[in-house]
Amino acid sequence: MRGFGPCPPELLGQPAPVPPPATPAPPQQKGAPQTGTARAEPRAFPSTAIEDCYGGMQLRDWFAGQALGGILSNVRADVGTDLVAATAYHLADAMMAERAKGGAA
Asked: Band of the pLDDT at 98, cuts 50, 70, 90?
């Protein structure tokens, strides 16, 4: 599971280590889950508490969970779980894209 491990030094009041130079990530396939560092992604419930070393749930995952609730309230029993999960993240990605544009007009 992504996002668990020792607390980053900056949350413990220590200077953060200098990161190595970034290497470009390979292009993602359409519909593939987004990847990246846990700290670079927006959070649904931001926190700086030491107990929550990684700042809360990722916003994309929260959007997907909200979409999942709606999908499951209306889905037929014969629909596969892979399709349901993919649809929830597709809707979450649409929310993230709209959010990046500044919201619906």
From this structure: very high
Does 62 have pLDDT greater than 50? Answer: yes
Q: Which of 3, 93, 94, 5 is nearest to 57 (CA)?
A: 3
Average pLDDT over the chain, rounded to an integer = 74
Supply 48's token pair.
């700086």
Other residues' Cβ atoms within 10 Å of the Cβ of residue 74? 6
Q: How far is CA 49 from CA 7, 93, 104, in A?
A: 10, 28, 32
Q: Where along the chain do its domains lie? A: 41-105
How far CA 85 is from CA of 34, 55, 62, 69, 75, in Å, comes to: 14, 24, 13, 11, 12
The C-alpha angle with vertex 64 and arms to 49 and 81, in degrees rounded to 5, equals 130
**β-bridge partners, 58:** 43
pLDDT score of 34 more than 60 = no
Residue 41: other Cβ atoms inside 10 A: 19
